[in-house]
Every structure is written in structure tokens, then in C-alpha cells.
Input
Amino acid sequence: MSDPASDLPFFYGSISRAEAEECLKLAGMADGLFLLRQCLRSLGGYVLSLVWNLQFHHYSVEKQLNGTYCIAGGKPHCGPAELCEYYSKDPDGLVSTLRKPCLRPPETAVRAGVFESLRDNMLREYVRQTWHLEGEAMEQAIINQAPQLEKLIATTAHEKMPWYHGKIDRQEGERRLYSGAQPDGKFLVRDREESGTFALSMMYGKTTYHYQILHDKSGKYSMPEGTKFDTIWQLVEYLKMKPDGLVTILREPCVNPNYSAAATPSVPGVRRSLQSNGYTPPPKAPEGLGVDRRTLPMDTSVYESPYSDPEALKEKKLFLKRTQLMIDEVELGSGNFGCVKKGVYRMRKKQIDVAIKVLKSENENKAVKDEMMKEAEIMHQLDNPYIVRMIGLCEAENLMLVMEMAAFGPLNKFLSSKKDQISVENVVELMHQVSLGMLYLEENNFVHRDLAARNVLLVNQHYAKISDFGLSKALGADGNYYRARAAGKWPLKWYAPECINFHKFSSKSDVWSFGITMWEAFSFGGKPYKVRPADLGGALRGVPHCGTSTSGTAWGA
Ligand code: AMP
Output
């Protein structure tokens, strides 16, 4: 998985503060000149380096647990591009707005950090050993799980570094440092036997020094009173630049005699590693046409946001121009608000297929309009490959919600019409993707409240996206559930008891709905709790408000 900032022309990757300042000096030191670099301290974080009044200002951009990015005390943003876009319009606490990007010279590649060169192999090794997967199944798992796995393996990446010696005592550490040349700054990291913590041993003036690496409650590593880091290898990289309390900076690693350089390929990015493993991604298949088994989600045009291109992002607006939207007469589906039509949205560099939810013109019902606006508001905040993205709203002959196209339609219909052609593995693959989309929602404090197979749309046979955010809610930072004031027109069969009894909705109740959706998927589009009328009064009897519709949807009011 490549860095989300890798396409930004002002992103330099893993460069130090001094190098960033050098680049800004070379670019002229104009007020508002800025660049973005990888944070060497926190996993997945960045530093924004900005010039004002001939001075440098460096702002850490932290990656939050929920996957958003923010400058301390500032607003969260869904990606580094969105964050920079925001600060280019509003300084919001910075010394200035971001006025002029300090562009990376065309011949200079984004500098990969130490971890990037190890990441692919570690991901692969982990998936092979833990899940016993090989070949294409392994590639698919890596793609689906990359963000979660990356975090997991980043914290153990030091074990693959030449300077890491595992569990050896202080004497053995000294013996290894004294063997061979003894330059100042020669170092190794070892496990401290008794406490399960780490120690740094280094050479200076032919003498060895030992430092305990502190590990605080929040999981950060540091030297006593020094800067804190998410991982041991980030701490080591930092100590190569700054002594931070040591007798000198770290220089030459004392190489572990058991270290194997073969474990450190330098091919960053899953996509490239797929190729290096003999896998060649197929050309982008037009969604909706016969799709080859080997087409992976990432090979489709809807894996990444249409706004991942910084040029397109600059023009991103909530309200789209009607002139850029072409509406086809083909109806993809309908609901009580109106119908969903097929269309094309023209962007600056490309045209994309879209699905357009059109509010019926006679539907002046304010509640329906409000519901559509609320759905748009929620969708506007989401950006994940396993969630149908909203492109924007368009107010013209009707109010229209423009979304990414998922041409294969709802999962329940697809599975029931293709029962004999779809393998159970295929269903697992799709539901795995749904779980990743739901994980993203949970991490970002959203509750979906209407997860069901009818609301999982397929881009193709092997790529699912969650849709229909009409009932969804963003939870406040302080709450982990939403309580509805009154019951509405609800999909009761997908609801957990606390939703029905106490109107309480949380990620936990979304998990319940996920369970029902799993049941629908593995019964190839079956209707949950489908009982013969004679059996009614069993499982459902006694559930308050439960509409016992025989249609299978069981919307209750
Ligand atoms: P909804 O009211 O959101 O459930 O949409 C009604 C129907 O329109 C769905 O069941 C789909 O058949 C179709 N539809 C909605 N959104 C999309 C989309 N993004 N791509 C393709 N079809 C869609």
C-alpha cells in the first residue's frame, strides 16, 4: 500500500528537518512556501514545513487511531491531501495559509523510509505464516488488509534490522561491539532479558555505553526525557541524526551475526511487489463487463477516490455543475425518494461512470429531501475503497446525489441470480471487503444503521462496496452510541435487540446487522427469518414494534 501522500508533488517522503529546510531555502523562502514530509516519529504521520518571515515552521500531522489526520488541536481530515487543501484556504492556527507548494524536482523520487523497504516482504511473510495463504489468495488478503497489517508489522520491523541482536546480555553486547573495528557511534539494540524492554549499546572513545530504551504506557519508545516514537526503528533513525542525550549520534550498525540481508528487498508498495512476484495486474477492466477472476479491487477505477489526483482535488466542490453531468435514461433502481439513474460525470482529466439518485420532482416532501441531504452529508465525509463514494450533489431540474457506480448492483440480487456460479470463497472474499468497509466506519465513529445485503453494491463479482447511508449517523467524539428519539421506518430484521428495545445504535449493533448480512450472503440472497405463516409468533413474537411483513424486508414503524 503506497503512502497516501505519494502522489502529492510537494511530498518528499522520509527526509530530515534539515533537508526540508534546505529544499525550502533553494526554492526561495517566499512567505507561505511549504512542503510535506514523512514524520520520523509517529507511524503514518507527516510534518508540514512552512516558511513565514524568512523563518521555518514545522507542524506535526498525526495519524489518528480512526485513520484521520490532524495538526495538534486542529480539525481532522481524511487524508494528507485534504489537510493541505484545507490549510491552503484557512491558516486555522498556522502562521500562514499554505500558499506555494515547494515542488519536488522531477528527477527526485519520494524518499522511502527504512520501513518501506521491508514492508512488502514482512506483509507477505506474515500472511503466509499466519493465514497459510499462498498465490492469489495471499495477494488479495494483503490488499484487503494492508492498512491493519502494516501497523501490526511496523511495530516488529526492528527484528529485521541488521543492528537488532535479540535477547543477548550486556556482556555479549560488549563482546560484539568490540569485535572488528570500533568507530564512535557503532551501535546495536538488544532485548533486556529480565524486563522485556530494549537496550541500546554503543561505542564511543573505545568504551561501550548502555542505555535503557523507555517504553511508556501508551506504547511509545524514547530515551530518558527524549522524543517519543511509535517504534524502535524510528527511534534509531532519529538517533542517527540527533544524540538526544546519548554520548554521540548513532552511526555504523554492529551487524548481528545471524542477520540475513536477503530479508530486505527495496521494492516499496504492494502493487510493485505483486509484479515482482510474477503477478501482472490486468488492464483496467470496464466495470460491469465480463470481469476476469484476476481483476482485483485495486485494478478498478473505483478503488481510489476520483479526487486522489491533487489536480482533481483542487476542483472538488460539494455542489457539482449540471453541465458536467450527463444523465442516461437507464434506471439502476428506485426507492421512495425517486430513482437511481446511470450517468457520466466529466472531470478535468477524465470522465467517470456515476449512479445518480434523483429526488422525484413531485416529491416535495421535506422529510425525504432532508434525508437525502443527510445521506450526502455523511457520504461526503467518507473515503474508503469498500464504501460507495459520493462525487457530489447537483441541484438542477431535481436534487441529485451523484455517486460512484457499482454496476453489478445489490449483493442479495446478484447472489440469488447466480447461485450456481458463485463459489463460497467468492462470498467470503466479498464479505471480507464489507467487514473492511465497516471497520473504516467504526474507526471513524460512524454507525451505518442499515447494513444489509441489499445495501452492499458490487462493482464486479469480486469487489463489494457498502452503500445507502440514509440512516447513518456520525457519533460525537464523546459518545459511542446514538439514541433515536423515536422509532422510524426501520429494517427490524437486521436490528439488534437494543436497537428495537431501547433505540440504541452503535458499532456493536452494526456488527449484529453484519451477522444478518452474512446469513443473507451465505444463503445466496435468502431472506432472513423467513418463516411460514404458521410458524410466526415464534422467534419474532414479543419483539416490540417489529413489523411482521411477509415481504422479507420487515420494515417496522
Ligand atoms: P438505494 O435507495 O440507495 O438503496 O438505491 C436503490 C437502488 O439503486 C439500489 O438497490 C441499486 O440497485 C441502485 N443503486 C444505488 N446506488 C447505486 C450505485 N452507486 N451504483 C449502482 N447502482 C446503485
Q: What stands out?
A: Residues 26 and 102 are 9 Å apart (CA to CA). Residues 332-333, 335, 340, 355, 388, 403-406, 409-410, 454, 457, 467-468 surround adenosine monophosphate (CB under 6 Å).
